[in-house]
Amino acid sequence: MKSNLRISAAQINTTVGDIKDNTAKIIASAIYARDKQKSDVVVFPEMALTGYPPEDLLLRQELYKQTQTALNQIRTEIKNIYLILGLPTKEKNQCFNTAVVIYNGKIIAKYHKQILPNHGVFDEKRYFTAGTKTCAIKIKGIKTAITICEDLWSKEPVIAAKKMRAELIISINASPFDIQKPMLREQILSRRTKESGLPIIYVNSVGGQDELVFDGGSLVVNAKGKITQRALFFSEDLMAIDIALANKKPNPNPKTLTPLNSHVELVYQALVLGVRDYIEKNNFKGVIIGVSGGIDSALTLAIAVDALGKDRVETLYLPSRYSSDVSTKITKEQAKILGVKYSSISIEPIFKSFLNGLPKTWPRKLKNTTTQNLQARCRGTMLMGFSNEKGSIVLSTGNKSEMAVGYATLYGDMVGGFCVLKDVPKTLVYKLAQYRNKISSAIPKLAITRAPTAELAKNQKDSDDLPPYSVLDKILEKYIELNQPLDKIVAAGFKKDIVAKIIRMVNHNEYKRRQAPPGIKITTRAFGRERRYPITSKFE
Questions:
Q1: Which entry of 135, 149, 378, 419 is annotated as an active-site residue?
Q2: Are residues 303 and 165 in the same domain?
Q3: Are residues 222 and 362 in the same domain?
Q4: 25, 46, 167, 402: which one is catalytic?
Q5: How far apart are CA 83 and CA 76, in angstroms?
Q6: DSSP sequence for 104-130
Q7: What is the pLDDT of residue 456?
Q8: Are residues 218 and 344 in the same domain?
C-alpha cells in the first residue's frame, strides 16, 4: 500500500541534564530521518531535550535558559521535516511537560500534558501544571493529535482528540520498565484505539536513569487495536513508519514485528542496560564486585561483564574461616570463564584484629549475629578500600528478598554505589542465571545448585533463618507489591506464624533499606522512590 506519510520514531537514549549532547543527538536523528529515511515527520520521546525525569532540576531557572537555547538551535538547524519534541516549558511562572511541533524553524503547535502521574516513581504534580487544551494539527493533510505518556492511560484525552476530528494520534513517552509493563502497555494502547477508532504511534524513551530503565519498544497500533510495528527493546532505534490512506482514513502499513520477549529475557536486558548507563553516564572507570561463590554475586558478575566488557570488571574474593572450598572453586571458575581479573584475600587477619581490639568490658563470647556482621564489615571495608584505590565503583550483590527482610549487613555486604539485583526476588535470580547460561557459559552450575548460604557461621544456610525462597517470595510479593494484609495472605494458603514473622521483618528493616545503594527497578513496586514507608512507625 502506497505511503502518504512517513514518520520516524526516534527512540533515543538521553542523559538527564546533558542538554548539549541531547540536542546533538536530536539534530543528528532528525537529519538522518529526513535525508536517509525520507521521512516527513520525526518524533522524539517525552522530555527528550532534558532527559527524564529531571526531578528538582526543574526548580532551577538555568535549566529553562539552556533548554530555550537548545530549542532555538534545533529550530535553526532542522528544516524540511516536521519535528515533534518533548521538553519542559515555563509560562507565567508555571511549568509544563510540553510537546512542540516544529516546521522550518517555527513552532507551529504546542501541547501541555494533561494527565500528570503522581504515583509509583512519578512526582509530576510536584513540578508541573496540567494542560487543559487538546492539540490537533494537520500534517500533510492528516489531522494529527499529540498526547504525552500518561494521557493515554486515561480515555478522556483520546476522546477529546476524536471530537476535534483527529485522524491519528502521536504519543511521546518516557515510560519506565517493569516486568509487567510491555504487555500492559500494548493492552492499554489497543483499548484506546478501539475506543476512538484512531491509530496510535507510541514513541518511548530508552536507557537507564538511576533506578529507572526505559525499555523502548515503541509501537504502532492500527484503528482496530492491532500492533502493526514494534521498535527494538533496550536499544536506540529510528523506526520508519508508513501511513497510507484507506477509505480516506490513515492506516499504518504493517511491518515485520520485533518479538515481545519472555519476562526473564526482558528483565535481564533491563539489568544490563541499567548497569551500563549508570556506569557510563556517571563516568565511572569500572566496577569491583565482591564475589562469594553464591548465586547473587555470580549473576551480578555476569551482568556486569555483559554491560561493560571484561576489562572494566574486577572481582575480589574475601574468604573467612567459614568459607568453603566449593566457594573458592566457583569464584575462580567463573572469573576464568568470563576472563575477568580475580583476587583472593583472606579477611581472617582483619577479623582477628577486630576481635582482639574489642573492649575488655565486652563479653568473652560474642553473639552469633555480632561475629557474622563483623566479618561482613571486614569485607565491606576491603571492597571500599579497593574502590578508593582503583577508582572503580563497587557493585553490591544483594537481592530484593534479602533487602525486604533485612537479611543483609549494613556497611558489610550492603556497601557499594549501585545494587544490580536490589529489585530482583531470589527465585527470579535463579531464572536469570539459567537464562544467561543458555546464551553461553557464564555462571558455574555449582553456584546455581548449591544451597544458599552467607558462610558467616559453621554450616550456615539461609534456611536456618528464612522459609524457602519459593515461599518467602510469594509472601513478599503479596505484601509489598500487592499491598495485601496478613489475613488475606494467610487465606491464600500460607501459615499465619510465618506470614506474621515475614511482615515484622519487612517493617522492622526499613531503616536498613534507606541506607542501601540505588538499584534497578524491574518489579511493579521497588524499594526506594516507589515504596516509601516511614522508618519510625507503630502501624500494625
A1: 149
A2: no
A3: no
A4: 46
A5: 12
A6: TTEEEEEEE-SS---STT--HHHH-PP
A7: 77
A8: no
